[in-house]
Amino acid sequence: MAELFSGDLATAFQILVLGWGGIFVVMLIIYLVSMALSKMFPPKKDA
């Protein structure tokens, strides 16, 4: 029974890491896109 529990725990940890990793990857992509857009379309000085 202990073998089954440790396998389930390892699977749960793997899903947890993939989920959080995905969140940080999406946040990084959004940051990079926003930085690229601000470089391509800088704010106007007279506004």
Outline the structure in words.
The structure is a single chain. The chain is mainly alpha-helical and 47 residues long. It is built from one helix and no strands. The N and C termini lie far apart (68 Å).
Concise account of the structure shown:
By secondary structure, this protein is mostly helical. It has one helix at 2-40.
Brief descriptors of the model:
47 residues
- Assembly context of the chains: single chain
| Proportion of residues in β-strands | under 5%
How far apart, in Å, are the first and last alpha carbons? 68 Å
The total of beta strands comes to 0
Elements, N to C (H/E): H
Give the helix/strand class: mainly alpha
The average pLDDT score comes to 88
Helix content: over 70%
Residue windows where pLDDT falls under 50 for at least 5 positions: none
Round the Cα radius of gyration to an integer and report it: 21 Å
Report the sheet with the most strands, covering strand number, pairing sense and barrel closure.
none
Instruction: Identify the overall geometry.
Output: rod-shaped
Keywords: Membrane, Transmembrane, Transmembrane helix
Transmembrane segments: 12-37
Protein name: Oxaloacetate decarboxylase, gamma chain
Organism: Collinsella tanakaei YIT 12063
